[in-house]
What we know:
The structure is a single chain. With 331 residues, the chain is an alpha+beta fold. Helix content is 51%, strand content 7%. It has 15 helices and 7 strands. Strands 4-6-7-3-5 form a 5-stranded antiparallel sheet. A two-stranded antiparallel sheet has the order 1-2. β6 and β7 form a beta hairpin. α4 crosses α9 (146-156) and α8 (124-135) crosses α15 (316-330). The relative contact order is 0.13. The model is unreliable at 1-28 (pLDDT under 50).
Amino acid sequence: MAFATRLITVRGARxxxxxxxxxxxxxxxxxxxAATEFAAWxxxxxxxxxxxxxxxxxxxxxxxxxxxIPRVIELDQRQPEGRMTFVEYRGKVISDARIRxxxxxxxxxxxxxxxVEARYGVPAEIIVALWGIESSYGEFKGRFPVVASLxxxxxxxxxxxxxxxxxxxxxxxxxxxxxxxxxxxGSWAGAMGQSQFMPSTYLGYxxxxxxxxxxxxxxxxxxxxxxxxxxxxxxxxxAEYIWGREVKAGSGVASAGLDEERPLATWQSRxxxxxxxxxxxxxxxxxxxLKMDDGSGPSYLVYDNFRVLMRWNRSTYxxxxxxxxxxxIRT
Length: 331
């Protein structure tokens, strides 16, 4: 997800000051009382981080000059102006240009991706599609300092406990030495690198794909691809099946969503067909029927691998678009 960004740091912070000056940003000073309260909050965080094995050296480097970022709070509190239809969403994330670029990169990184596919059982085109939707194939990795963003949300956000846990995870990543504090950038909500992993996801699922001793989801393709595939594999991806398919489902066929799973034979008996009108596959697998946009949009039969994609992002729009982009890239 790409966001317009503005980095807010303290003028005296050694590691971020150069970036702030280079981007020409204005740094507002916190009111004295608020600054004191935030500093006290950081002291408590330091104590908790030490209990999790984070050294004072790492804490000094990571937290030097950190202040709340007003823009992060603004984005966290912003409410959507209107609900985007699936057809609108699909048009934004599955452009012809993204499909062409995905095909090009699938060919360019083919040997590496096939090795990852063989190891984790996740199709190369699924990895490329996720890469494309999450970070536009690495063009967008985020411009917010992750530690400062997470500190802002942990201190004053709607889900303070969640983001405090993510901040502690980010500090543990820095302690491990996989990345330097001044290079740890991501989205305003703390999603990092070309895979847009949250710090806790990174700790649990990022892997060293090229054997250099680091897990670099910011710039090393071997690590990016392997980490994404490892996550999907651990979430239960089944290499024997696809994610789902677009189908024809007449107005008389109700969509019960993901709560209703039925064998393909049942959907066949209810009148669901492939797009070309032919019968559904004679395969013993359960599926759910999704009729998008309250039935006015396309319909999809989706399988368990679709649910795996939703563990990455709990959005039917997102999971469906990943599957469709992967299909288009593979074609």
